[in-house]
Every structure is written in C-alpha cells, then in structure tokens.
From TrEMBL:
The gene is ambP1. Coiled coil: none annotated. Signal peptide: none annotated. This is AmbP1. Transmembrane segments: none annotated. Belongs to the aromatic prenyltransferase family. It comes from the Bacteria. Pfam families: PTase_Orf2. Mg(2+) 2 binds at residues 172, 208-209. GO terms for molecular function: metal ion binding; prenyltransferase activity. Mg(2+) 1 binds at residues 41, 63, 65. The lineage of its organism: Bacteria, Bacillati, Cyanobacteriota, Cyanophyceae, Nostocales. Keywords: Metal-binding, Prenyltransferase, Transferase.
C-alpha cells in the first residue's frame, strides 16, 4: 500500500472508529485532486468533540514549497471542489496572495462534505491593521479596539471557511500578558464566553497562537481558539480531555512511531456550539516543526505594535 492509499484508509478507519459520518464519493473526489499533496507535505488528521457521543473527522495539509504556494485555490476551483458563489468569502484568497507574501498555505477537508477551508500563512508577522484593506467581515474592523486592548495585533495567518462563510485570523502570542492565566480569563469574559477550568487556564500560559472567527453575517466575534503543540503522545495533557479524545490520542494513525499533536481549545458563547476541543495528529512528523517555524518569525519594529514596556 502506498502512502496515499494508506492515508485514505487511515482517515476512513478514524471516521468509523469514532462515529463520524463520511462519504466514499467525496473522499474519492478529494483524493483524485489532492492525494499526492497529502503524501508529500505536512499532513494532519483531526478530530473534535463538538458532539458529546462521537468525534468529527477532518484532514488537512500545508504546502511550504514556494513554487506551489497559492496553487491550492486554483486547483480546487478548476477541479470543481470549490465553486465561486459570488460571496465575499470567495474572493479572499486572491486578495490575500496579492497583498502579503505567503510562507505556507493549506487546505482543510471534511470527510462528509469535502473541501472546507483554505489557509494562508504570511511570511513575516504583520500588524493586523494591514489586513483591514481586505474584503473581510465588517466585524473585524468594528472590533479594532478590542484587538488593540488585548494585544491581538501580530497577525500571521488567515483561514477562509467556505462552509460557514467566515474568516479566522491567527495571532502570535508575543506579548507578556499572553502568557498569564488572567489574560485568557479576561479575554473570554469580555466576549461573554464561558471560561474553562483553572487547570486549562494555566496551561494556556504556554499558548502558541490565538485564532478569532468572524462571520460575514454576524456583528460579533463568533469563536476564540487557542492552539498548543505537543511533541509526542506522552506530552499531551490527557487529564484535560474526554474519554473519546484520549482514545484518539492513544490510537491516532501516523507514519511515525510516536507522533506529535496540536491541540486547540475552542470557546464560543455560553450555551452555544463554539466550545469544544480539537486534536490534530502530526501524521508525517512535519506539522509540529512547521508550527514552531511559523512562530519563530521576527516581529516587525516595536512601534508597529505599540508594545508595552
């Protein structure tokens, strides 16, 4: 079995094991177009506990070859996996590529619905104000004071969600306050999102990035997510996970013996659907190093961020 076939088999096995609905037809279409990219690049299989009795199943890859950057959007459009529906979200990837130099890009797939998101990681961290010229949801600029007050200004990536017509902005945790539990507690409370346990708040002091979700149809910030990398299974704080996510950590397929993981803790309005945990397995052993590489980029001059002294 070559790597492409093994990856497809592993994805289906994860979906079956954890109760995620999937479509063989959708998977066939995706693998016909992107299968080789999954074998040749940073690749992840993700689960999340949006539903209490089963896990979702998603998969994604990141492209770092400069000659291939930006091509995923073209490939998806030409293949029919992504269509132009005349929405603002449909034009964002070309705008981003024309505005910023790109360091890496990636594509996210759902096992039932197919292509879901496309990411662009900027080469060099930029002030978030530089992105205001893009056709982003109006809620981004209306929250400019919120972003400034919480030091959410060191922008390094975009995630364009075609299923939900939304945009994720990813920020580097450069500021000293980003590494205090009080910061995360205040950040969530300011959005009226339910804060987690003190144990998780303390873990977030090591947080590597903060993602905010903005929807074209909503005036508010829809979701916050905090991402941390872990070098192997033993490093993952399984005491903070439910039994199904623990099972995934221990059984997740990979081409390396003891893979790393990236965990994301997502928060939304109290009583809403935005609060859950995401777990990505570093299938080829390339994702955690890429995460570290992205977050080792130098910040622009301090004046651009008005850094606290």
């Amino acid at each position: 079995m070559n790597d492409v076939n093994r990856i497809r088999t592993d994805i289906i096995n994860v979906a079956k094991t954890f109760g995620a609905e999937y479509s063989e037809k959708v998977l066939d279409e995706v693998f016909q177009v992107f299968g080789e990219q999954f074998a040749d690049n940073s690749f992840m299989i993700r689960t999340s506990n949006k539903q209490p009795d089963k896990l979702g199943c998603y998969f994604r890859y990141h492209e770092e070859d400069e000659s291939q950057l930006g091509l995923a959007w073209d490939i998806a459009r030409k293949s029919g996996l992504l269509s132009d529906q005349g929405r603002p979200v449909d034009q964002l990837i070309p705008e981003i590529c024309e505005t910023f130099p790109i360091m890496a890009d990636g594509v996210d797939f759902d096992v039932k619905h197919g292509l879901a998101k496309i990411w662009q990681s900027i080469k060099g961290v930029v002030p978030v104000q530089d992105a205001f010229k893009l056709s982003l949801p109006a809620s981004v600029t209306t929250h400019s004071d919120f972003l400034k007050n919480h030091h959410l200004d060191a922008l390094y990536a975009f995630g364009i969600d075609y299923h939900h017509s939304s945009v994720n902005l990813y920020f580097d945790t450069y500021h000293p306050k980003h590494h205090t539990s009080e910061y995360y507690k205040n950040l969530l409370q300011d959005l009226q999102f339910q804060p987690p346990s003190d144990e998780l708040l303390e873990l977030l002091t090591n947080n590597g990035e903060i993602a905010l979700t903005f929807n074209f149809a909503s005036p508010r910030i829809e979701r916050l997510c905090f991402y941390l990398p872990f070098l192997n299974r033993e490093a993952v704080p399984q005491n903070l996970l439910n039994p199904l996510l623990k099972k995934y950590i221990n059984e997740a397929p990979a081409l390396v013996d003891n893979p790393g993981f990236i965990l994301g803790w997502s928060f939304g309005p109290q009583g809403g659907k935005g609060t859950y945990t995401k777990v990505d397995v570093d299938y080829h052993g390339r994702t955690v190093p890429l995460f570290m590489k992205v977050h080792s980029q130098p910040l622009p001059k301090a004046a651009d961020f008005a850094l606290a002294q």
